[in-house]
Amino acid sequence: MPHLSAEEHAARGKAERAEMPRAAHATWEALPGRPDPIALLEEQAKTRVPELVPIRHGRMLLSPFAFYRGAAYVMASDLAATARSGLRVQLCGDAHLSNFGMFGSPERRTVFDMNDFDETLPGPWDWDVKRLAASVELAGRDNGFSKSARSDIVLTTVRAYREAIRNFEALRHLDVWYASLDIQQILEQSRSQVGRARVNVTERNVAKARTKDSLQAYEKLTHVVDGRPRIISYPPLIVPMDEFVKGAIREELEQQVREILRGYRATLQSDRRHVLEGYNFADMAHKVVGVGSVGSRAWIILLLGRDDQDPLFLQAKEARVSVLERFLGKSAYRNSGERVVAGQRIMRAASDIFLGWHHVKGADGIGRDFYVRQLRDWKFSVDIAALDPLLLTTYAGLCGWTLARAHARSGDRIAIAAYLGKTDTFDKAIAAFAIAYADQTERDHQALAAAVKSGRIQAETGL
Length: 463
Known about the structure:
By secondary structure, the chain is an alpha+beta fold. The protein has two domains: about 5-210 and about 395-455, no CATH class; about 215-375, no CATH class. About 50% of the residues lie in helices and about 15% in strands. The protein has 18 helices and 13 strands. The strands form four sheets. Strands 8-9-10-11-13-12 form a six-stranded antiparallel β-sheet, sandwiched between helices. It has a three-stranded antiparallel β-sheet with strand order 2-3-5. Strand 2 (about 100-105) and strand 3 form a beta hairpin.
């Protein structure tokens, strides 16, 4: 890493602005030969669990915003055809509104941060900003907001990003690294802006989120069979191990799981490895998660400590090659699970104490990468559809700040701040891009609906 003076970093940003003016970000137009978005979804489906792919398409079919959540590959392909910044950061790769939320820090504070890093990879910082801004425009449309209201919310989001980057630019490295959003502080600061009634509702949701831990998951997701706790069956969304293997094969698979846990445990810090060693394997099940992730292999693993009232639920989620790698180059990590973990650790203020990775050879003989974390650790995702314009403005502003903090931790924040400048030129350009790309997403969503109607694509709704 070159150690430049602050002035040299700023000059780098201004040179980038001369190379790619801020107003150039406003443009989006599908070029001739643009890849068929449905073909891109079909390409992704080839390596997913076949019987789950229709669920993914069914969830994407619900609305243009839902389609967008599952279309990170489509947007990466589109952004690759546009001008890009030469200033690189650790990208989230899928920075839409629903990939932010609340969770518990290791110090047991409730914090607001990003919560999905499946596509993380180094790349141009503006790609994340554009994906976040377009998601705000789409969410506003889904919620029935007026054009002017949507414009104000998108501008607020980008302004929050720009102003945060400029604030981080003046901070010391460690101050940037320690910066975080504590939910209690946010609530106190929001009372005068959004009103006491709205804050009270959020406080109740935060209190409810603090009950979402392994014990709550244990009470909800298990029952007792022959005196032993077993994960419930709710196919196709939850399928316990006992339903796809029996007898000696089950014992063999259970032994493999224990070996996997030992291998994964080696990727943890020594103190956290010590804590995990106090738990013993009890059961596991396949679980369908998310929108874009549906069809990927995701397991929930039940471990027990001192007794049946000391559970720990882990989630092992398949980590694929990032959708960005085709356009930005291969990851420096051979294991995609490690890529996800490393990206999360550099972008997020605090990570799950049991966050790790492993490579697994399945029963079909194919090796796959996984990352592992707690299934529930005070995690709470905001229902975007339930937000009015004022609440969405506040929420989107928090997302903009959080994304800026993540980029400031991993990239040249001084250069990015110099590029952005003090005016709203960049904000207006991204707002224009968000409208144009939301229009494109609506057309892509219609193409998915047409593909389902024609029988080209199978979709399972209601799951």
